[in-house]
Design a protein that fits this description.
Blueprint: H1 2-16, E1 21-28, E2 33-35, E3 50-54, E4 65-69, E5 74-77, E6 82-83, E7 95-97, E8 106-112, E9 121-130, E10 140-142, E11 162-164, H2 183-230
Parallel strand pairs: 1-9
Antiparallel strand pairs: 2-7, 3-4, 3-8, 4-5, 6-7, 8-9, 10-11
């Protein structure tokens, strides 16, 4: 009977194995990610070897090991981006992934080797490396109007699309009033332009008549002087 219970106990341990804890660690590409792992160190004799590996913890050792320690220092290191920055002498064996990449996502096993059968402390940690999000502001389209005048004050407008970054109401540009702030002012400007266009030809005609008169006087004076010279 006792042998039967011993066999069942051995089979239960072999098939179920020790309890494995775990955690979820998220980070961004380019950041330094720390995967936590600790074990109890009460006395100097408690310091022991451990390993980090990719994938879930196997029955023994680490699958695809990336770091090994003898309890006091790092003895094997797969890549310089994998580091143990904690104090090994107090049981802090947390893994730091420097300049994380998207390929670093996956399961990591932390295995602390404790003397005795099935006493190893194991923990599986899922690491998720995400891309950094880039926020974009929706552009706003504004239109501008231009007024042209020829002869009379006729207004024509055209639309020019311009894309500007979004601004708040307090930062929005204020519209200043033009020379024609009202209908009466625009009428005065129109009448002034018409008077100027009428007075300009009259002034030109008077100046042309003056030049013609001066020319005739000069011709008559020359004829008179020539007649005196001949006589």
């Amino acid at each position: 009977m006792s042998s039967y219970f011993c066999m069942n106990w051995i089979l239960l341990i072999l098939f179920t194995g020790p309890t494995v804890s775990g955690s979820l660690v998220k980070g961004k590409i380019g950041q330094d990610i720390t995967v936590p792992c600790r074990y109890n160190v009460r006395e100097k004799q408690d310091i022991t070897s451990m390993c980090w590996g990719r994938g879930s913890c196997p029955v023994s050792k680490c699958y695809q090991p990336i770091i090994w320690t003898d309890g006091w220092r790092v003895t094997e290191q797969y890549h310089s981006r994998y580091m143990l920055k904690g104090n090994l002498l107090v049981g802090d064996v947390s893994l730091t992934i420097v300049n994380a990449r998207e390929a670093d996502s996956g399961i990591y096993c932390c295995r602390v080797e404790i003397s005795g059968w099935f006493n190893d402390q194991m923990s599986n940690h899922k690491v998720v490396i995400e891309k950094a999000r880039i926020s974009t502001a929706s552009p706003h389209t504004y239109t501008s109007e231009q007024t042209s005048a020829h002869g009379s004050a006729s207004e024509s407008s055209f639309t020019i699309p311009r894309t500007w970054p979004s601004v708040s109401a307090s930062e929005a540009p204020r519209t200043t009033s033009g020379p024609c702030s009202s209908t009466s002012n625009c009428s005065d400007v129109t009448s002034d332009l018409q008077d100027a266009s009428v007075s300009l030809p009259r002034q030109q005609y008077s100046e042309n008549g003056l030049y013609i008169g001066i020319g005739l006087c000069a011709v008559l004076l020359a004829i008179f002087i020539l007649a005196l010279f001949l006589t």
